[in-house]
Design brief:
Blueprint: H1 5-27, H2 29-34, H3 47-70, H4 85-113, H5 116-137, H6 142-147, H7 149-168
Helix pairs in contact: 1-3, 1-4, 3-4, 4-5, 5-7
Length: 169
């Protein structure tokens, strides 16, 4: 596979999402470790960077696959849309961008603002966007869609944890 300019841009954007998210997380770690009442199901500290690195790598690969194959898609799921395949492709790209923004924003809401209710609602929206991406991508590239399933599972689990934190605090 030949590396293209958009591959580097995608990887850089995902790294930026990770860096910004971790900056907000770092701002609230003392509070998280000392004051926050956490539910019993919160994973060990080492699980978070492992999970997020896997998610970010899988997301980058998925987006690269979609970008490389997106314009080749002739049919789009089993629906007949009045939009062109190019518009559908850009809808998926917009969902990836929105996903990145929401990913960073959740860290700000939770770790900086300590607004558990808003963080939970934002996570539900994030989960919907991830599932929409999987649904929309499946006819462009099944492997690209499958790469996003661990992300959907992780955000579903994290939504449950966030909800429990909201109840406990």
């Amino acid at each position: 596979m030949k590396i293209k300019a958009h591959h580097i841009l995608i990887i850089a954007a995902i790294i930026l999402v990770g860096i910004l998210g971790s900056k907000y997380t770092d701002m609230g770690m003392l509070w998280y470790n000392t004051e926050l009442i956490k539910p019993a199901l919160v994973p060990a500290k080492w699980v978070f960077p492992l999970a997020w690195n896997i998610i970010f790598i899988a997301t980058a690969i998925s987006l690269i696959m979609v970008w490389d194959k997106g314009h080749e898609a002739k049919k789009f799921l089993f629906f007949k849309f009045k939009t062109s395949p190019d518009q559908k492709f850009w809808l998926i790209i917009i969902l990836f961008v929105l996903n990145g923004v929401l990913n960073v924003y959740w860290n700000y809401i939770f770790f900086v603002l300590h607004d558990f209710s808003l963080a939970f609602k934002e996570m539900i929206l994030l989960e919907i966007i991830i599932l929409a991406k999987i649904f929309l991508i499946q006819n462009i590239s099944k492997p690209a869609a499958l790469l996003l399933i661990p992300y959907a599972i992780w955000v579903g689990f994290a939504s449950y944890i966030t909800y429990q934190v909201m109840l406990l605090n």
